[in-house]
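Hey, I'm writing a tutorial for new members on how sequence and structure tokens pair up, and I'd like a real worked example in the thread rather than a made-up one. If someone can provide the structure for the chain below, I'll link this post from the tutorial.
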Amino acid sequence: MEDVFEKIVQDLLEKQYSVIDTFFDEVEVENLRNILLFKYEEDEFKKAAIGNVFNEQIVKTIRGDFISWIDEKEATPAEKVFFDRITDFTDYINRTCFLGIRKREFHYALYPKGTFYKRHLDTFQNDDSRRLSIVCYLNHEDWSPEFGGELVIYKPDEEITIYPLKGRVVVFESQILEHEVKPVEQKRVSITGWLKTRKL
């Protein structure tokens, strides 16, 4: 996996984001998708909010997804594979880039038809510890543009559109790149999370 990790590092250095389709294999993605759908059917998801615990609020006009936080201490075998891969990646970037990643947090995310997440930045005014945002898409492999739900990353001179293909992983700078999720036309599922440094 070091070749994959190195490509992510080079992408981050050159353009502040990276798109990788080989971070997890098909079986690993399918196992995570099955867990997500099971949890959703068991009503373990809640409406996502805006802000952190200090100013959390739910605003339907800005964000429409449902989430379920993943407790690493109670991880299933499939989730342990996920976290082991994230650990390997974190160790690599800490060793090669000296980012000082110390913590992480991840949740399952499900966007029902018609929902979206308007343009935003993945940091809070009272907490700047999020350094890298990571999204792993768990949709079916036949996801097509008419299904919507694309991730748009905004840079000063361009807009990058990324479709949520099965197994695709997107890594980007949490404190720099504004982004949004366009309205979805069919259920969109993923794992989303952050690699975090010490809170300043």
